[in-house]
Amino acid sequence: MKILGQVAFLLLLGGIWCQNNRNTKAGGKTTKKSSGNQGRDVDQSPPVADATPGSTGSTRGAGGSAESGQEAAAGARAAGQQTEDMRLHFLKNTQVTCNDGTAAGFYLKEFRGSRRWLLFLEGGWCCYSKETCDSRYQNIPRLMSSSGWPQTKRGSGILSSQAEENPHWHNANIVFIPYCSSDVWSGTGPAPTPPPRPRQGREKDRDRNTNATEYNFMGSLIIREVIKDLIPKGIKQAKVVMLSGTSAGGTGVLLNIERVANQLEQLGAEAQVRGLVDSGWFLESKQQRSPNCPETVSCSPEDAIKIGLRLWNGVVPDRCRRLYKRGEEWQCFFGHKLYSTLTSPLFVVQWLFDEEQLRVENIYMGGQSLSEEQWQYIQNLGLELKNSLRDVTGVFAPSCLSHTVITKSNWMTFQVRGTSLPRALQCWDRSLEATRNNRTPAKGCPFHLVDTCQWPQCNPTCPALVDQATQQELTLLQMLVAMGLDLQKLDLDPQGDADSLASMVSNGG
């Protein structure tokens, strides 16, 4: 049970089954062993696909060279490879690295002449102790090391360079920043090494003292260095820089957008920095946890972040940090507490019944069982998320059970009150441009879109529910029955409630 709990917990803020098993044993300054194919990955639909199958990427450490990888990519392009691929660049500052000391970096697809930049932060939760970091390194090495990164990737959804899949951002400069710091993009370096123990039992103590500080946690520094390395590519001339991310990457946007805006301003850029947060707007857990959380893997997200912040040397936005006393900075990881302190424009994309939020409470839709109390929690979750988004200017919140959306190839199919997500983002863009130019925003172009119906899956454009055992598509009521709920006991009439759901949807749900 402990192992199952650990795997489920690592899923929070972004994890489904691993799609990419090409990761090799990580190099760099630590010599961990990777048994690599049993882990969980970040998204059900990976935001990018490897465009060079079989490639193991560069295996250089923090002080190596990226030239050979760039030459390989250039050779592939000369051989006729499609130009929509994003190409891997390692950071010029070799002191800023992934967890294991291998080089951090980014993938870039340039669009010559464009003054719009889309920077994307990958998701994948975090680790916060030796036990959780070692498990992560063994099971999901690509989230801690660059040793297995391919030379090129191809984006999907908002990262696609195809106009039919990405109508409003396909012609931007697109930057994908892989997540290899395990710190929700907040770390600024390795934490201080704990003081040595007394001389007695020195050998045992040395083993006990080997903790997660052997890893580097530099997520916030990686973002800073990516911006620096994009200066020769023209980011100083940008008109708009959109910092986006899914899951833990979405939370990373919340934590770093003000820092990115300040960095670009200090460089003399006149770009407006905007944020796009997908499935990174979480609520605190309601589940009671073990009081000895630091000694277990069953920590709540709040406790994991409290512990992790010290380990990562994590930073939060200054204006939010000043709201809380020392030791309470973890509260700035929650969007509903941080949002009002931000000055940069922000658009929030959030499923009202986010699967990762449910997993925190040990609720797995399509799993084996569901209690009446858990069903009640699910219903209340939608209402709580709606309330938390009430004052957010730009929002797209369908009443669906899912996790992440902007990097899925079918992201254009989801709608709220007849407006698709790409259309809502375009309306938001136009409104910001109008405001910047002292014009009145156009009417009839909505960008605050929250479903009004109360049930999960009451939006007809929701992703289908799939039974995990049979892989068959089910309606919500069919799934509730399959998970052991007595519909009559809950006063749910399958036919009547189906009719009421249809009515709510037709009335603008």
From TrEMBL:
Basic and acidic residues: compositionally biased ranges: 200-209
GO terms for MF: palmitoleyl hydrolase activity
Signal sequence annotation: 1-18
Lyase recorded as keyword: no
Keywords from the named record: Signal
Any GO BP annotation: negative regulation of canonical Wnt signaling pathway
InterPro entries named among the record's database cross-references: PAE/NOTUM (IPR004963)
The keyword Signal is annotated on this UniProt entry: yes
Residue ranges, annotated region (Disordered): 23-79, 187-211
Bias (Low complexity) ranges: 23-39, 67-79
Alphabetical list of PANTHER family matching this protein: CARBOXYLESTERASE NOTUM2, NOTUM-RELATED
Family recorded in the similarity comment: Belongs to the pectinacetylesterase family. Notum subfamily.
Protein name: Protein notum homolog
Gene: LOC103355933
